[in-house]
Each structure stands twice: as C-alpha cells, then as structure tokens.
Amino acid sequence: FSGPFTDVVTTNLKLRNPSDRKVCFKVKTTAPRRYCVRPNSGIIDPGSSVTVSVMLQPFDYDPNEKSKHKFMVQTTYAPPNISDMEAVWKEAKPDELMDSKLRCVFEMPNENDKLNDIDASKPAPVLNTSKQDGPMPKPHSVSLNDTETRKLMEECKRLQAEIMKLTDENRHLRDEGLRLRKVAHSDKSGSPTALALRDNGSNSLPSLLVVIAAIFIGFFLGKFIL
Hints:
Elements: E1 9-16, E2 23-29, E3 35-38, E4 41-44, E5 49-56, E6 70-77, H1 85-91, E7 98-103, H2 111-121, H3 141-186, H4 192-225
Antiparallel strand pairs: 1-5, 2-4, 2-6, 3-5, 6-7
C-alpha cells in the first residue's frame, strides 16, 4: 500500500484458476477492522480470473512501526452442486484446502517523487513568441479615452458658450431689425436712408444664422467624420 494514508488506499489482488475445475476462494486478514475486501469470497471458473479490491482505511502512519498485517487466500475445489458457500467451507477437509499467505507492506512516497508530482501538476508557462525583443508596451487605451472625453467636454462647453453669445447677439439684432422696420414704416417720405436701414435689418438675421450653421457643421465633421 502506497501512502499517504490520510484517505482510503486501494490495492487490487488478482486471483487466477489454472485448473480445469471450479474453485471456491475466500480472503482472510489478521486486521479485519482496518481493511475492506470486495469480494471477500466467490467462485472462479476454470481458466478464469477475478480481481479482489483490498481497501485500507485511513490511519496515522508511523514509519518506525513494522507492519504485522497479513492476508490469506484460501481455496478449495467447488463441489458439483453448490447451494451454500458457508457449508462448503465447514465441510471441507484440511487436506482439500489450499492457502497462500501475503504480508502487507506500507510505503510512503519519496521527497523526490513528491517534487516530480508537483512539477508535473503545474501548468507549463505560456510564452509569447511573437515579440521576443524589447519591453512590452504599456496599455494607453484608458488614458487616451479619458483625455479625449475631457477635451470633447471642454469643446462642448466652449461651443455652448459661443452659442449663447450668438443667441444674445441674434436677439439684439432681431430687436434692432424690428425697431428699424418701425422706423421705416413710420417714414412716409420713403427716403433712401430709411430704405437702407430696412434692408440692413432684414439681411443681418439670415447672415447670422448662416454663421451659426457653419460652426455646427464644421464641429461635427471634425469630430465624428475626420
């Protein structure tokens, strides 16, 4: 049995019948509380074999303590008609019984074996062979995104301020245009001065709207298309 013995340790025992008759077998141990044997008895056909699992229960292992546990495999030829296995063993004569004795050996894995198992269980390191020379570039995607966002917000605030300023100027010019229209209407003489003022007041509003539209178009083309 190979340790560690902190859990159940199982060892298989293979029994083979080389004769031309059926053979009954039974597995016995000197420490029945320490072992679980499945199957512990049965019949083996001629030329066949059976595997017996011997399960050692967990215990505190002491390397200085010598093992005194033993197993015995007892066999006998099976009678023609078998109805009761217990009766077969009770009625069997001593000269008809055959037995094989086995001594238990406990072994702990060496330190080198433990190290090899640990190294084998570790995953192999993954190397990036595409770029072997030079330091790895640092990711700048987050900082660049933050910088662009901050610039965009500042640009939006600046444009909002300009829009508010232009809106005020537009309102002022519109009021001035209304005043000039009133003056033009009140001027019955139809003088060239009144006509010129009316034309200037009516033409100033479309020119201002064209300037505002050009600013918005240039901003969106520069940020989202280019």
